[in-house]
Design brief:
The protein is about 45% helix and about 20% strand. It is of the alpha+beta class. It has one domain: Trna Endonuclease, Chain: A, domain 1 (3-Layer(aba) Sandwich), CATH 3.40.1350. The strands form two sheets. Strands 3-4-6-7 form a four-stranded mixed sheet. It has a three-stranded antiparallel sheet with strand order 2-1-5. Strand 6 (about 100) and strand 7 (about 110-115) form a beta hairpin. Helix 4 (about 80-95) runs antiparallel to helix 5 (about 115-130). Pfam families: DUF2750. This is Phage-shock protein. InterPro entries: DUF2750.
Length: about 130
């Protein structure tokens, strides 16, 4: 279980650009062994980029919950274990031809990557931390 973030940490991380957010997410997911999504009564919520339908993911509960406002105020942050992500989600997203929106900020800015790329980067990060 991850240590909760304080407001100063959240404010600092919210200033990161998309590449810094991606690196932060990879480190947090590997360290905490969980990745955060938002769900509603229909399942995982989605974002649409110009080219792709995406599943947004966050490194911490606090950032996922910050998105549960407005149209998404009925959504709940849900942690997925890293093992479950590797064993089910990567292939499921590929089969459904979905991309991943990496740690989008409040302006809906974030990198869009394909599930196999994300899986590879997570495994690379795990090797670095051993």
């Amino acid at each position: 279980m991850a240590t909760p973030l304080d407001q100063a940490q959240i404010d600092t991380i919210n200033q990161y650009d998309t590449e810094q957010r991606y690196k932060y997410l990879l480190k947090e997911v590997v360290t905490n062994r969980e990745i955060w999504i938002l769900t509603d009564e229909h399942g995982c919520v989605m974002l649409n980029s110009e080219d792709e339908d995406c599943v947004p993911v966050w490194p911490n509960q606090e950032f996922a919950e910050a998105w549960a406002t407005g149209d998404w105020d009925n959504c709940k942050a849900e942690a997925i274990s890293l093992n479950k992500w590797h064993s089910r989600w990567t292939y499921g997203l590929e089969d459904d031809e979905l991309a991943i929106a990496i740690f989008p900020n409040q302006d809906e800015e974030g990198l869009v990557v394909f599930p196999d790329e994300f899986d590879f980067e997570l495994k690379q990060q795990a090797r670095k931390t051993k």
